[in-house]
Structures are given as C-alpha cells and as structure tokens.
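Course assignment 3, question 2. Fill in each field.
Student: A.L.
Task: Predict the tertiary structure for the chain below.
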Amino acid sequence: MSNNLVLGTVFPDDLNLNGDQANLLVIQKRLQLQGVTSQIVEVANSDLDEVDLLFLGHGSIAAWDFIDKHHPRAISDIASYFQSGKPLFAVSSGALRVLGQTGRKFTEGDHRSEFVDVDGIVGYLNSPVRDFIFEKIQNSWFTMLHGPVLAKNPALADQICTELGWIVEPKTNETLLRLDELADDSRKIAFES
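Answer field:
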C-alpha cells in the first residue's frame, strides 16, 4: 500500500449534481481516522493509472453533452480502466455510462424518487432504472443512489477501504463512533417522512 493514497476524480465540477464528490471526502476522512494518508486529485484520462481509486459522479444532460463533445474518449477510457480490474466508485449517470460501455442494458419503468434500503445500504434513488440500484463488480462499486451515499453508509466506506487493502486492522475511536452515530441518525430520518 502507498504511503499516500490517491483518490482520483474526473470532471468534479460537472459531475457533482447532488454533492456526489463528497463520497471521496468521506473515504478520505475515514482513512485519516485510521491513520492512512490520502489525497483527492482531479485527473485526466491519461492519468488514470496514477490513482488508487477513481470516482465518477452524476451529471446533468448538459454536463454529459459537454463531456461527450470535448472529451469523447472519457467514458470508454474509464470503462477500460474498470474492466482491467482497477477500483472505481461510480454514481448514477456515471455508473450507467460506464456499465453501458461494457454492453450492460437497463430496464426502465416509472420514475422513482424516494429513499431506499438495498441490503442495508441506504440512499436516495431518483431514477426510472428498475434493475440496478447498487452493485459491486470486481474491485468496483456502482450505485444509482444520489449524493454522498457513503456519508449515510460509513460501513460501506470502511468495507471499500478494507477490500482494497488500505485498512488491515480497523481501529475504533471516539470520532469514528460519533460519525457512525450521525450516519445512523441520518438513515433513520430519511425514512421518517
């Protein structure tokens, strides 16, 4: 493991529609509280091999039109990165774009806009996609859940860090326990209304 992990992100200004980029902040903070140093950096497609984890957020139609026009190879390069077994965390339209490049098809139905719990992972779903909400494939995680889903699911953030070998023996401290309590409260509030 590197002494300073690189958490990479592409197009963070364009692909942050629901505060998705905060997922990297959650990972970075939880790593810090485990004594692991990391940095969040914006990377171009030519630098994908320089990151320990790549993040791809959700964007508007206009944002994707801009990316497709000015960076036409972006998504195919990220799909190749994923298919080579390198770790990726992709949210909503970012997830759909990458998985679509691999030939994956999705079934759509009525648009759903609600908080959901999928096997203990809680988040906000705002999509007509029916057959995909959260999935781990190889060393990568894909979700239709918007926003900083890891803030509501710190155990998932820790699981990602552990599966990638960044945390070998998890520690517990007051700050981590308090963050977990806040996440628990947030999960409960999501379903109260």
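Instructor remarks: The mean pLDDT is 91. DSSP finds seven helices and nine strands in the chain.
Grade: pending
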